[in-house]
């Protein structure tokens, strides 16, 4: 899906890691939420409270998922799932444009 129709956007940005990661929350008509974000180069650790589907829209990132010992590289158009209540690591060498969908 390349666009979301009939949504509300929270104007205030979510800003993390001294401004190297930012996102905006999008609320769909059925009440589900997504975030559209951008990451600058760096290494980050994210904690989840819900299950997440992470879709890379542009750029590249290396991901270390919980319980795994090897980093995996993802390119634009690829995605991965993360369970609720875990942490995962992200390394970005250039940029990463992403969409995070929250699921139950």
From TrEMBL:
Which SUPFAM superfamilies does this entry report, sorted A to Z?
Answer: RmlC-like cupins
Gene3D superfamilies assigned: Jelly Rolls
Q: Write out the function statement from the record.
A: Catalyzes the phosphorolysis of diverse nucleosides, yielding D-ribose 1-phosphate and the respective free bases. Can use uridine, adenosine, guanosine, cytidine, thymidine, inosine and xanthosine as substrates. Also catalyzes the reverse reactions.
InterPro entries from the entry?
A: Ppnp (IPR009664), RmlC-like_jellyroll (IPR014710), RmlC_Cupin_sf (IPR011051)
Cellular component terms (Gene Ontology): cytosol
Q: Which gene encodes it?
A: ppnP
What organism is recorded for this protein? Pseudoalteromonas espejiana
Arranged from A to Z, the UniProt key words for this protein are:
Glycosyltransferase, Transferase
Q: What is this protein called?
A: Pyrimidine/purine nucleoside phosphorylase
Q: Which family does it belong to?
A: Belongs to the nucleoside phosphorylase PpnP family.
The protein's annotated catalytic reaction(s) are: a purine D-ribonucleoside + phosphate = a purine nucleobase + alpha-D-ribose 1-phosphate; uridine + phosphate = alpha-D-ribose 1-phosphate + uracil; xanthosine + phosphate = alpha-D-ribose 1-phosphate + xanthine; guanosine + phosphate = alpha-D-ribose 1-phosphate + guanine
- Which GO molecular function entries does the Swiss-Prot or TrEMBL record give? guanosine phosphorylase activity; purine-nucleoside phosphorylase activity; thymidine phosphorylase activity; uridine phosphorylase activity
What's its EC?
2.4.2.1, 2.4.2.2
